[in-house]
Automatic annotation (TrEMBL):
GO terms for molecular function: DNA-binding transcription factor activity; sequence-specific DNA binding. Residues 9-66 form the HTH lysR-type domain. This is LysR family transcriptional regulator. The keyword NADP does not apply. Keywords: DNA-binding, Transcription, Transcription regulation. Belongs to the LysR transcriptional regulatory family.
């Protein structure tokens, strides 16, 4: 007759024992479990009492598993792993999508929109990887990427335009008030130009000053547009960016257009993905969200 598991110690005591057996320290085990050191010690004493043997040798600064404790720790760890695996199999796999974007796109465009996405799609585990390097989709486990440039981005990749780069110059209103209208600067241009990795100041200046740009101004160079924008917010000069990256700052008055004109360049931000995606439903949801947000 099946007598069930009447001789089993409490599962919580076994979990605590397994944790202590790894750390050989009550305090470290308590920290991992989020309980007090006294609670851990009490559970271990209760487990030893129920088993009728010692699992640990107590020393002033550490613990040591007894011979019985070592064997029991191996068996308990294996049993807990089996329980964990069985539990995970019962739960639906998360609808995970990994999106690779540049650091500036992540900070300036994705992050402000994430709360709305997670509220609308709580079942999708969206993971953001910020990198300047175009993802190796299958090797890196990436499903979608957003990259600046012009297609093609590589063999076997689809590219869908999110938005073109409409170039505008922005600066702090306080700096503009102090140094005057840059369009009317004359031969001596008093502003520092804040560069990023796109090197678009030469065509922009040629567009703004068709009769010839003023004398070469001071320059600060950054590898990311987000850093140039931060420098502009700090009244360090004029940065080039797209209005989409500084919507909040323009609306709040923290930044203002330095020139009235803008320049539309050929390159843009593209949604890039393998022609054979890993999965469909969550991937399509993320893709449609990105396209709809870019269309606003």
């Amino acid at each position: 007759m099946d007598q069930g598991f009447n001789d089993l110690p409490p599962l919580n005591a076994l979990r605590i024992f397994e944790t202590v057996s790894r750390h050989l320290n009550f305090r470290l085990a308590a920290d991992e479990l989020g309980v007090t050191q006294g609670a851990v010690a009490q559970q271990i004493r209760g487990l030893e009492a129920s088993l009728g043997l010692k699992l640990f040798e107590r020393h002033p600064r550490t613990l040591r598993l007894t011979e019985a404790g070592r064997g029991y720790a191996v068996s308990v760890r294996q049993a807990l792993l089996l329980i964990n695996e069985a539990t995970q199999m019962l739960r639906p796999a998360p609808q995970r999508v990994t999106l690779s974007v540049t650091p500036t796109f992540a900070a300036r465009w994705i992050l402000p929109r994430l709360p709305a996405f997670t509220a609308a799609h709580p079942d999708i585990d969206l993971r953001i990887m910020a990198s300047e390097r175009l993802a190796q989709f299958y090797q890196d486990g990436v499903d979608l990427a957003v990259r600046y440039g012009e297609p093609p981005f590589g063999a076997g990749l689809n590219a869908t335009l999110l938005f073109r780069y409409e170039l505008m110059a922005v600066a702090s209103p306080a700096l503009l008030a102090r140094l005057g209208d840059p369009q009317q600067a004359g031969e001596r241009f008093p502003y520092t130009l804040l560069h990023d990795g796109h090197n678009l100041w030469p065509p922009f200046l040629a567009h703004v000053f068709p009769q010839g740009a003023p004398a070469t101004p001071a320059n600060l160079r950054f590898n990311q547009t987000a850093l140039a924008i931060d420098a502009a917010l700090g009244e360090q000069g004029i940065a080039l960016t797209t209005p989409r990256f500084v919507q909040n700052e323009l609306a709040s008055g923290r930044l203002a257009p330095a020139f009235a004109t803008r320049l539309l360049v050929e390159a843009g931000w593209y949604l890039v993905s393998p022609r054979r995606p890993r999965q469909h439903a969550p991937l399509d949801a993320v893709r449609q969200w990105l396209l709809s947000e870019a269309d606003v």
